[in-house]
Amino acid sequence: RGLGSSGSRAREDSWLKSLFVRKVDPRKDAHSNLLAKRETSSLYKLQFHNVKPECLEAYNKLCQEVLPKIHEEKHYPCALVGTWNTWYGEQDQAVHLWRYEGGYPALNEVMSKLRQNKEFIEFRKERGNMLLSRKNQLLLEFSFWNEPVPRDGPNIYELRSYQLRPGTMIEWGNYWARAIRFRQDSNEAVGGFFSQIGQLYMVHHLWAYKDLQTREDIRNAAWHKPGWDELVYYTVPLIQEMESRIMIPLKISPLQ
Prior knowledge:
By secondary structure, this protein is an alpha+beta fold. Helix content is 36%, strand content 30%. The longest helix is centred in the N-terminal third of the chain and has 19 residues, at 2-20.
């Protein structure tokens, strides 16, 4: 009786463990190598600056004076992709997106040179007095998304940010490699990125629209395309949190 009871408990324990222990498929490469563009080695930096409300106008003016000098300086291997103020979402917020052509070595080179740039040092000091908080993330771009290139305006931009469940980035990429085809008709897809440093398992999709009504019309039209609803159905369970920002570009932004 004792042996039978012991064997029963062992089988029960084994069955319970099978409910909670997830089998992992072995992978031979990092997620970044599987999902990112192989033909480029660009690294992106996304900056969020929460500005004191009374300082937003002065902050924008300061950025418009200094940031183009970094963007246009040839010996800095970086480019300003876009710079915006958040319109709907977190208020009194500035968002900047930079590209470092050459990956981490390019980032290190730029940071090293800027530490020797007296004008930039003064800019950071003056800027710091205007901020409540700031954070940044280093990103790679999804291989199946559009390359973010300058565009004429006027446009509004939507930055949709997704906090994924850890371990689901490959699934997300597999579904969106198909889903992006449904969102190309109106040229609204600007860029898609995933985080490498900062808040992890973050995905950012950047879209451009003529106005809020155009955004509504384009998004509604996607639901009439066979297959879009299925892809949404399978990607929603991968998300822990999501956020949408509607942003207005500054005058210096290459994305207008």
